[in-house]
Amino acid sequence: MDYVMIGITALWLFLYGYLIVASIDFGAGFFAYYAKRTKKDHVINKLISRYLSPVWEVTNVFFVFFFVGLVGFFPDTAYYFGQTLLVPGSIAIVLLAIRGSFYAFENYGSKENPVYLFLYGATGLLIPASLSTALTISEGGFIQETENGVILMTKKLLTSPYSWSVVFLAIVSVLFISATFLTFYANRANDKQALALVRNYALFWSVPTIIASLTTFIALSQHNPRHYMNLIDLWWVFGLSIGFFSLAIWLIFQGKLYGIAFLCVMFQFFFAFFGYGAGHLPYLLEPYITIYDGATHESMGYALVIAFILGLFLLIPSLLLLMKMFLFDADYVKGKK
Amino acid sequence: MPELDSVVLSRMLTSLTLVFHIIFATIGVGVPLMVSIAEYIGIKKKDSHYILLARRWTRGFVITVAIGVVTGTAIGLQLSLLWPSFMQIAGNVISLPLFLETFAFFFEAIFLGAYLYTWDRFKKPIYHWLLSIPVVIGSGMSAVFITTVNAFMNAPQGFTLEGRTITTIDPIAAMLNPATPTKVAHVLTSSYFTSAAILAAIAAYSILRKKSNVYHRKALKLTVTLTLMFGILTAVAGDFSAKYLAENQPEKLAAAEWLFETEEGADLIMFGRLNESNEIVGGIRFPKLLSFLANGDFNSEVTGLDQFPESLTPPLWIHYMFDFMITIGMYGIGVSLLYILFMRLKKWNELNKPLLWLLVANGPLAMLGIEFGWIYAEVGRQPWILKGYMKVAEGATTSPNVGLMFLLFLALYTALGVTCVVVLRKMFRNNPVELELEHRYPNVTKKDDSKWTT
User: Fold this and answer.
1) Residue B149: its pLDDT value, please?
2) ipTM value of the model?
3) Number of Cβ pairs < 8 A linking chain A and chain B
4) Which of A93, A98, A321 sits opposite B114 (nearest CB)?
5) Is residue A278 less than 8 Å (CB to CB) from chain B?
6) Is residue B1 predicted with pLDDT exceeding 60?
7) CA distances from B321 to A88, A329, B252, B256, B318 (A)
């Protein structure tokens, strides 16, 4: 494997990591707000804040890692995506900023402020929607090269069925991933009431998740037949994804092994995400950037790979420590510490 | 008045984000060290006051960290969104430190989370203190790596450029460019200085507001001592920075010092103004001091603006930025020295009102000093975005929507800034020290107070 493949694989792993941890966080924000509105907040909000408090900052860093690494390995992406994504990118930054800071305000500062909680819940759904724009654009067909540089064809983007199906998929998967995680966490905390509630959320959101996945497939076949055909060639990867999805739902429905069920959901998205990514190659942005002609120099590529590996030696033990302290420490989860 | 094209607007938006971000970045780098020192003293002296100090500082700190994180994300993305052509070229060469900065921050974030939620979870308190070390190191290293990127823009090296394509890259040489050592030293020391000054201002203000109690007095003594220490180190690092400039970017120093002609034994001029024919009117003149500051020799030659075409020199108003920065730094060292002096001489009361007010003023002033220093550093590099290779105007986006985004971010930062202040005030007002002391350490307060008030 050359440094370009290592680079894109590592970046994709980070984006996958962000997809999982951020979904848990985004969805939890929405559920917290929803529970408040339906007067069920006493049941789950304590549970949610117990998990989220120590990890919210870590979530954001996954994302920063991805885009810093992307520009590092593939500097041309800075030009094409930077130039075209000014507006959606800025909106995403503003939403992320509101979310991050108001979460801290509400959590460490003034408890129970309804405005903060609303902002926290609303941004949880809007951020995935706005970030998914970048993936949509990468399929090609939404960028025009003019003498003044490249520009985004906003109208085409806003009227494309593919673009909306991605937004829909992003939102429902966020809710599904989050609900399955909270089911596991509630069970771990031995909180029967909360478990019953979030388990229902998980079962409910599984249906739109599978529908949205299929719709996106169909929309992609219309929008980018090349990518679609690549995905068909990788049919077994998506088969595995659906298999893990079914297993997860079956376990949650049976009301047992919630930890395994959440792992299955992680695998479901792992295979779907990597299948999608593999089919996308060699393009990063069709038809302008491929991973080969857009890659940085070999010396920088290797420097980044080495930095990445050394960094992992530092981060993985620290992450394990954090998980040991908060995620798997039964007393902490149960609220005794 | 320059036309508001996308270049000017991109500069405005970048400035806006940086001016706001640097406040929280400075606190983010500096305060963890102060917290760690306070907790360590508390554990060693078995003094709950210092532990509570560390605890309360941390609680305020996480609010500012949150804003630091989100505005840091903003500037990280805006680099690509507003300066796509710059990042397309520079991204090749400086992505390593950007990448490493993220690692350092990740490391810090993980341990900050752990530090925050484990105050009472360890049997031996020193284990909890150990968790503060990676936070201090992580935040410090973030500052180091990101500063190398800024240094690279001032003194690019480690690559060869043929036309518009880069042919070879040496990532380590790019990071360790000539501007890196002095810049890193100045950024770190000034962050520690400013954070200590702000915490000292809070302590001084609390003593002025309420009747002084032993908790605030200990806080003041610790923070002013640290302010003085890091103030002196900042000045030393600043002196090295000036010597770096004299050697490597003489036009930046000359513009700041209004040195129009190259001369030996150059005078240092503070403030003053320029008349129509660019002669200096008024101001305070220190004979031959500039030569000494630039080269360590009162009679040495300092390069003036005459050596550079006018199109390649920065605007002359940065003189004031430079002078404000120096003056504020000197003020900070001066008042903290005064406090220490008063404290040592038993006859004088270091808690007299005027001195306390001077210390209160030093907090916001130090932060202003950071702002002035960065404005000097950034505007002083003009017209270059990558000195000698790419001008600012060539790096900017051509998107027509930058103006609108400027307004969007102005609204965002206003909301964040205001809410931050409101939340912090509420947080500490609803939970005063006296109550928390009694609640957490019921048997310490009385005994200690009597010892101090005599």
Assistant:
1) 92
2) 0.82
3) 222
4) A321
5) no
6) no
7) 35, 52, 12, 8, 5
